[in-house]
Amino acid sequence: MEEMSYESYCKAHNVSPFVSVKKACELENIGHTRFYELVERGEITLIPNGSRRNVTAVQLYERYRSRIAKAKSSQAA
């Protein structure tokens, strides 16, 4: 299992530096309720953008890298 670079991740998922909550839920494969639970726990930070809130693509990429690392460590065990 090989990691993507940040640029490859953004290109593959067609995301800009700021991602809508809806798109973030799609990328994380979670619903809105779970998403806002992660926000409350501080695992995801919302960025104000006018009347909307966004997530940075960097945060989503770091969460992706974390999942890859966990998968690799469980395969090695």
What does this structure look like?
This protein has 77 residues and is α+β, with helices and mostly antiparallel strands. The protein has one domain (6-76). It has helices spanning 6-13, 21-28, 32-40, 57-76, and strands at residues 18-20, 47-49, 52-56. A 3-stranded antiparallel β-sheet has the order 1-3-2. β2 (47-49) and β3 form a beta hairpin.
How would the blueprint of this fold be written?
Blueprint lengths: L5 H8 L4 E3 H8 L3 H9 L6 E3 L2 E5 H20 L1
Antiparallel strand pairs: 1-3, 2-3
Number of strands: 3
- For the termini, the CA-CA separation is 15 Å
| Major sheet strand order | 1-3-2
Note the beta-strand portion: 5-15%
Task: Figure out the total of helices.
Answer: 4
Low-confidence parts lasting 5 or more residues at pLDDT below 50? none
SSE string: HEHHEEH
Helical residue percent band: 55-70%
How many structural units, i.e. domains?
1
Give the structural class: alpha+beta
Gross morphology is globular
Gyration radius from CA atoms, angstroms: 13 Å
Residue-averaged pLDDT = 93
Major sheet characteristics: 3 strands, antiparallel
Task: Describe the structure in brief.
This protein is of the alpha+beta class. Helix content is 58%, strand content 14%.
Key features of this structure:
globular, 77 residues, 3 strands, alpha+beta, three-stranded antiparallel β-sheet
